[in-house]
Structures are given as C-alpha cells and as structure tokens.
C-alpha cells in the first residue's frame, strides 16, 4: 500500500508532464506554420502590412506561372519606356492587369533574373532598396490611391520627398521603379502630379488593359479557360465577350477572368443582350442573395463574411474569437443557420457549388486553407452593391476598419477644403464603385472608429483623413 502511495503521484505527475509536453509541441509546430506562411507573404511583398497584402497576389503568381499573361502593344510600349528611362507609370482601370503587368515587366527586366520583385507603398522607403551590388527594381502598386487619396494633406507634404528621391536614386539608376495608378485617379490628378512631381512628368503609359485586338482577346479567353479548368469552348465565351460593354468598374480582362472562373455566371450570359457587365454582376449578386436554395444562402453568407474580413480569410481565422462573431452576425442578418468549419469546407468543395469559386479562389492549402477574392475591384463591387441600404449597419459594425477608412465615401459633397487638388481628390472619392456611408449612419461609424482607437487596432493616421474634411462628420466628431 505504501508503495502505491509513492508510485501513483509519480505516475500522475509524469502523465501530466507528457500531456503538457504534447501541448507545447503542438503549439510550437502551429506557431512555426503560421510564421512560415507570414514569411512567405513577406518574401513576395516585403513592405506591406498583413491587411494590405494584395488579395490577388497568389492568383497573379499562378497566372504568370501558367502562361496566362498576353503580350500586347501596350506591354511592348511599357518595356520600351522602362528600358530607356529606368522608371515607368502604368495607368489603367480596375482589373485591367496593371499589377500583373508590373510584376511581369520587373521580372523580364531583372538583371539578376530574380523573380521576387519587392513591393513598396511609401516613397520614403525607396532608399532602403538601394544596393551597391545590383540595380534593384521595386513596384509601387496603386501608389496614389493607397497612400494619398484618403489623406488630403499628405501628398502636398511629400512633394519634396518625391523629387529628392527621384533626383538621388531613380534618375541616376540606383533603383528602378514601376508604378501603377488607376485610370480615374490619374485623370483627376495628372495635371497636379505632372506639374509638381518630376517622376510623373514622363514615363507614363496609359491605356493598360483597355484595347485588345481579336487575336489577343481570343488568346486571353483560351488561357483563362485553361487555368480555371473550364471546358467551355473559346468561341462560346468570345460570343459573350463581344456583347459585354466594359465600364469603369469592370475592364475586359477582369470580365473575362470572372466569366471563366464562374460557370454559373457564364451559363446565365449565353443568351444575354448587350449590356454593361456591371449590371450583369448586380443582377447575379441580388439573385444569389435572394435565392431560396439552402446551399446558395449559406455560400452567400460565407462569401459575405470573407468580404467583411477584408477579402482574405484562412480557415483558422474562421474559428478565432476576433472573426467568428462576424460570421454569426452575417448569418443572423440573412436568417441563415451558421455552418461549422467542416461544413463550410465541405460546401466549398461540393461539385455542384459553382458560386463560391466564382468569387473566391484558394490562395494556399498549407498551413491551413486560405481563400481570397479574385480581385480587389470585385471585393469593392460586392460590398458596394450589397451594403447600400438595410445592411449598412452590418457593414459598419463588422467590416475591416482599414478597408472602411480606405475605401468608403460619405454621402454628400459638402466638404470644407478650398484647395483645388483636394477638390479633385474628392471628385475621385465619390466614384460610383465606392460604398457610400449614409448621413444617418455617420454616428455609428464614429462609434466604431472610437472603439478601434481605444482598443489600439486603429493603425491608420485618421486625424488628417479626408473624412475630417466632411462637415457632417466633423460636426458629429466634435459631439463625441
């Protein structure tokens, strides 16, 4: 008996130590896997924060490796400008392939053959890339939209930095720069940029992804069908594309990409009359939202949830305390019973479920499955279309705060600024593809901002945000 009294506690302690060791080992492996994924993202896009990583980055990599890129006259023009000057600015509408063109251009002209072209979103960081051994190339993707369009005074403050960096590093060939700018932002600010910043006085290639001849269009369709494992005939898709009226929201390349990736959407367009692709997508989304089919409802809620999370979601995030309540709120808003994780993954992989792959693609399978929207412009359109009215409070309460501050607009044009270039920014800010926060929800938006500030999750410099130029917003802010 006395032996048992001695042995049992020892065995119990040993067992607890083994269990503790197993738990520590599991956590360590999980942590390593997460760090591995973060390192992989950072290797591709070194200076971008986690929430700023391009949602289509993995897709671009897949398309470039799969030989989907179609050489055009504009690409040849960009090559000529870049090789002659050492810098180039690519201008085109959303989804026109500016980022893919920039990466392809950087790789094709890399002296070292390096496939990893770093991204940089801050003109102040450009000198960090200077390397005595080689002439590095960097990409500044959507530079003006991401860094300056939501902070009206920042562009004025950085003019001297732009010109100093250009004179010391870019003009002298110490670093090569490929910049992309959206067509609408460029049209509003090109006079201002061209007259104040040396970098934008030359080396501009406009019209990226806007004009394609018949052979280029057919080649693009064939490549997209192949990469998306879609057995539809190229001629069938080409007949649909002929009837597509592209607009400022959906350019021809992204329209083709979405049609080839979304078999349900493709099937619905076969007998359609010529109409803007935007209206086709609006009808598709509203029909999906209002569907009585149980799988359609639940798949819609999952995609809506991913959109609110900023367009990227790993299945581990799905179960995290910071994200899962958002999914529950979405399901509640649309009167749908929430799925468990395994049910979600089963639904996505269902052979008959073609709606989710039409909006999300599998970014990675390890260490856990991660999904992202096909393109940032598709994410913007999805939220702008579905969060206009009764679902706007759902958006304000649950959406990624960085996305709200970078992508949303306020409901009227009553701003106090008298600066001409700021008025141009405001005109850009009120484009139709932006989600408009209604006046009666400004108080709710301010409550969310204040909550994020107190929690330390508000990383943006909000005090000089363009919202502070808005009279109603400023008035409500003073009340708080």
Polypeptide structure, described:
With 480 residues, the protein is of the alpha/beta class. It is 55% helix and 8% strand. The protein has 4 domains: 71-205, Rossmann fold, CATH 3.40.50; 214-286, no CATH class; 292-381, Arc Repressor Mutant, subunit A (Orthogonal Bundle); 400-479, no CATH class. The chain has 22 helices and 11 strands. Strands 2-3-1-4 form a 4-stranded parallel β-sheet. Strands 7-9-8 form a 3-stranded antiparallel β-sheet, with helices on both faces. It is globular, with a radius of gyration of 25 Å. Mean pLDDT is 80; it is low at 33-53. Helix 8 packs parallel to helix 10 and helix 13 packs across helix 15 (321-333). It has helices spanning 2-44, 57-65, 73-85, 98-108, 143-147, 154-170, 183-196, 214-227, 234-242, 252-261, 263-269, 277-289, 294-308, 315-318, 321-333, 341-348, 376-386, 392-398, 401-407, 420-429, 442-455, 471-479; strands at residues 87-92, 137-140, 176-182, 204-205, 244-245, 275-276, 312-314, 360-364, 370-373, 409-410, 436-437.
């Amino acid at each position: 008996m006395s032996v048992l009294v001695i042995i049992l506690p020892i065995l119990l302690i040993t067992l607890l130590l083994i269990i503790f060791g197993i738990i520590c080992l599991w956590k360590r492996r999980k942590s390593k896997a997460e760090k591995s994924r973060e390192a992989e993202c950072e290797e591709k896009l070194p200076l971008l924060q986690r929430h700023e990583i391009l949602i289509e980055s993995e897709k671009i990599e897949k398309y470039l490796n799969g030989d989907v890129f179609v050489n055009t006259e504009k690409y040849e023009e960009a090559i000529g400008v870049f090789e002659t000057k050492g810098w180039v600015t690519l201008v085109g509408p959303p989804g026109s392939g500016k980022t893919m063109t920039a990466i392809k251009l950087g790789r094709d002209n890399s002296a070292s053959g390096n496939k990893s072209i770093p991204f940089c979103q801050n003109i102040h960081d450009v000198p960090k890339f200077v390397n005595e051994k080689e002439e590095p190339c960097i990409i500044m993707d959507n530079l003006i939209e991401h860094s300056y369009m939501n902070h009206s005074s920042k562009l004025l403050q950085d003019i001297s930095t732009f010109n100093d960096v250009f004179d010391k590093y870019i003009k002298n060939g110490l670093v090569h720069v490929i910049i992309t700018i959206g067509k609408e932002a460029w049209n509003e600010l090109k006079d201002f940029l061209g007259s104040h910043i040396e970098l934008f006085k030359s080396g501009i290639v406009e019209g990226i992804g806007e004009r394609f001849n018949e052979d280029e269009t057919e080649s693009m369709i064939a490549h997209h069908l192949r990469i998306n494992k879609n057995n539809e005939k190229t001629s069938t898709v080409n007949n649909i594309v002929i009837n597509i009226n592209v607009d400022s929201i959906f350019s021809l390349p992204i329209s083709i990409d979405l049609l080839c990736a979304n078999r349900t959407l493709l099937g619905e367009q076969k007998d359609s009359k010529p109409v803007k692709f935007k209206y086709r997508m609006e009808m598709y989304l509203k029909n999906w939202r209002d569907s009585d089919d149980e799988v359609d409802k639940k798949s819609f809620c999952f995609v809506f949830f991913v959109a609110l999370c900023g367009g990227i979601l790993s299945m581990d995030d799905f179960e995290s305390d910071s994200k899962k309540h958002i999914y529950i709120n979405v399901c509640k808003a649309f009167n749908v019973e929430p799925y468990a994780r395994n049910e979600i993954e089963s639904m996505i992989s269902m052979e008959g479920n073609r709606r989710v792959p039409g909006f999300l693609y599998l970014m990675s399978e390890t260490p856990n499955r991660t999904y992202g929207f096909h393109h940032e412009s598709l994410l913007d359109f999805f939220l702008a279309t579905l969060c206009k009215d009764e679902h706007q409070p759902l958006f304000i309460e649950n959406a990624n705060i960085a996305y709200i501050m970078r992508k949303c607009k306020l409901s009227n044009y009553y701003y106090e600024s008298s600066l001409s270039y700021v008025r141009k920014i405001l005109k850009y800010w009120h484009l139709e593809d932006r989600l408009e926060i209604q006046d009666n929800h400004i108080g709710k938006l301010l409550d969310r901002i204040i909550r994020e500030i107190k929690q330390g999750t508000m990383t943006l410099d909000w005090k000089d945000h363009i919202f502070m130029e808005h009279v109603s917003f400023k008035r409500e802010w003073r009340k708080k």
